[in-house]
Amino acid sequence: MHGRSCGPNPRTPSPRRAACDQASWSESHLPCLRPFPPPPPLRRAQVSAIIGLNSLTMKKRLLLTLREVLGPEAAFSITPRSFALPEELDVWEEWLRKQQKQQQTEQKQTTQRMRQQGGKWAWRSGVEEGTGSTSSGGGGSGGGDGGDGNGGSGGGTSMGMWILKTGQDAGKGLSLLPADQALQYARAQQQQQQQRQQQVDGGHGGGSGRRFQLQVAQQYIADPFLILGRKFHLRLWVLVTADCPCRAYLHRRGLVLFSAEPYDKNAAAAATASTAFAGSTKASSQSSRVATGTSFTQSDTAAPPLPTNQAAHAASGLSPALAGPPAVPYQPPASHITNYARNNNTMVWGMSKLAEHLGAERFRSVWAALRAACAGALTAASPSLAEAHAWLRPAVQEYGFQVLGVDFLLDEWLRPWLLEFNSSPSIMVQHEDAETRALVYEQKYGMLRDTWEIIRARVYPRGPGEGKGEGGRPRGLGCRNMAQWEAAHAGEYEPLMPYKQ
């Protein structure tokens, strides 16, 4: 890459968009090259990284990027509601408290309405007389078909399951817990990290282990769309070819990765249904309950009772924060795990098989929503890309490209939810079944082939009789014409940015 030398730079970008690490590489970082003279500069070269894209590929920064640029409402229409840890622990707790109060109010109103319509005992016994004649009584309480996705409003004041994520990849570092236990576990981790940091600052102990710290608390999608009774998620690929302005493409191929076992909602929902917040009680009585381990009911699938600090957060109405080491977090059951790195010998489909299963009309709607979500995330990343580009000041504008893995989950209404971006998606092909292995190869090979077709023209000149100019295109093309040229050679890549519906 013909860029300026990137040694130590006194200018430090804002913490919000700190991306300078990728740009500070130099020959001194490559000890194996020191005994040899540096290689001659390449006339044409590409770097397989775009500075600033870590605003999407890092879990916490993805959340902050979407929320800061798009606003909370738009951000949480793309990705499940999430909170940054540990910075937003108190905000998360306050949000849970408000949701608890709202659920309790709605439950009381529904109970009163059902009693007025059908009588106290008819409602309790589930008799349809007095409730079936009015449209207002069919919401989701009393064991009806509706509800809030967590068992209906008749299922108590449960806040549902939350998944806690660390900075690890390949499906590692995930914990699935009911809301109150998740909050306790996060507070315990915060206390442990503070103690560990004090030891590091005092010259004792090793590093802070940021990669293993909790980064995000995210609402769990408990009602996914199922195929053959199994949960699945989608792995798609996005190619970014320019950063300022952003040009990106979404590949039509992808992987549908299934769980190893049929989906068992009760494996997670049982813990949710049996775990309720302590409610608004006096601090003394709450401390007494916590001390005896009876602040909430345990189920077979929930984590064991977590040790608590009786004084901390006693007045909040929620379970107190942890004081001692946290118990082993509740691991997602096999029927909930779809990560290929941890589950690489189960059923896998290609996107064409998914389209066939859903039907043309439904798949067209799903694909449009997937494109819109990817484009929305890249739009949110544009300020970070522009700031990082201005900091780097590359002498070659099109210095690189990057393929991102994008993971989505479809809920029961076929609405896609963005789970994460991966900065280095796996291109390995492994599976015990030869037919499935061939399918995975076909999907990944097609993506890599089309990526090369777009990028190769930047490296190699045109062949004889194909026109003037190096890089496979006439010199002096503007951004708009360059995008048109790339789109014409994109194969199965669809132009994504600039976004057009």
Helices and strands in order:
Elements (H helix, E strand, L loop, with lengths): L53 H4 L1 H12 L1 H4 L6 E3 L4 H30 L1 H6 L35 E6 L7 E5 H23 L12 E6 L12 E12 L2 E6 L3 E4 L7 H9 L8 H9 L56 E3 H8 L1 H33 L9 E9 L5 E7 L11 H26 L19 H10 L4 E5 L4
Antiparallel strand pairs: 1-4, 2-3, 2-4, 5-6, 5-7, 5-9, 6-11, 7-8, 9-10
Helix pairs in contact: 2-10, 4-6, 9-10
In short:
This protein is of the alpha+beta class and 501 residues long. The protein contains 12 helices and 11 strands. The chain starts with 53 loop residues before the first helix and ends with a strand.
Poorly predicted regions:
1-36, 120-157, 271-328, 463-476
CATH class of the largest domain: Alpha Beta
Over all CA atoms, what is the radius of gyration?
26 Å
Determine the CATH topology of the largest domain: D-amino Acid Aminotransferase, Chain A, domain 1
Helicity range of the residues?
Answer: 25-40%
Judged by helices, strands and strand pairing, the structural class is alpha+beta
CATH architecture of the largest domain: 2-Layer Sandwich
Question: What are the secondary-structure elements, in order, as H or E?
Answer: HHHEHHEEHEEEEHHEHHEEHHE
What does the oligomeric state look like here? single chain
Report the span from N to C terminus. 34 Å
The count of helical stretches stands at 12
* Envelope shape: globular
The major beta sheet can be summarized as:
7 strands, antiparallel
**How much β-strand is present in the residues?**
5-15%
Q: State the CATH superfamily name of the largest domain.
A: ATP-grasp fold, B domain
InterPro entries: TTL/TTLL_fam
Protein name: Tubulin--tyrosine ligase-like protein 5
Organism: Volvox reticuliferus
GO molecular function: ATP binding; tubulin binding; tubulin-glutamic acid ligase activity
